Amino acid sequence: MSQNQGDEMEYVANADDNEMADVDDDIYFSGRAFGESDSDDDDDEYDPLENRITDTTAAEARRGKDIQGIPWDRLSISRKKYRETRLEQYKNYENIPQSGERSEKECKPTEKGAMYYDFWQNTRSVKSTILHFQLRNLVWSTSKHDVYLVSHYSIVHWSSLNSKRSEVLNVSGHVAPCEKHPGSLLEGFTQTQISTLAVRDKLLIAGGFQGELICKYLDRPGVSFCSRTTYEDNAITNAVEIYEYPSGAVHFMASNNDGGVRDFDLERFQLSKHFCFPWPVNVSTFTLISMFEIIDMETLLELSQSSWQI
């Protein structure tokens, strides 16, 4: 493969925001790597090819324009050839070897032909910052037109109706709660590295790499609550879920790498329940059938709401 074609392959890979190459752990967990620049312009300075990618509308896509805006007609490699090469070379990350092959045998064949979704718009004006493929929920949609995402040290809102971006919370400096709640860290945090996000019913909750939790109501100024869930070395907040009890009480739960799942009552921002497990918990959720589920890469546990025991 020529050097020119190799550069174009790398350029196309960079345009595919859903695929991430491996990141060195020492760099990944350092504050320098996570948003070493406060401006997207610095990134663009070293990526002139990506700057040529323009926004794509549904009408343009119907006329044949690539939905990611990649100018295949100006590249020496075709989309088909690139896809073939990508499928040959790219290896999916697996916690359990051959888990993909085994699951394919157990799953039913997909029925094709129906339209699952229809492309509407692709914009390059807002860029999310996702430095590792195992981070989740850093892009959050609350409606057909409202998207919340992490861009470096900022949580921003983007409206597809007017194509406008607005900053909701900036954690590059000092963030402290303006409300007083028992257990809240009044001193707050500085330069919080955001690892996960949840937004629901005018409430935004951000989880951090060091077990931080930051709660902010979108219709109120300032931050309502700050908490450090754990001081363990392996403290990354993997996921946050906001949910409603059958009684109407609103809670949220945080899943951490320290093996803990913590349930908070949002009325008073108080820790309600704390579950401990011998493995890092990637995801937890409260289902409609009143069951509390703890999910990691290998195990699914169900806890009864009435007893809250395994």
UniProtKB/TrEMBL annotation:
Protein species of origin: Lupinus albus
Chain spans, region Disordered: 1-62
Protein name: Transcription factor WD40-like family
Biased composition (Acidic residues): 16-27, 37-48
Biological classification of the source: Eukaryota, Viridiplantae, Streptophyta, Embryophyta, Tracheophyta
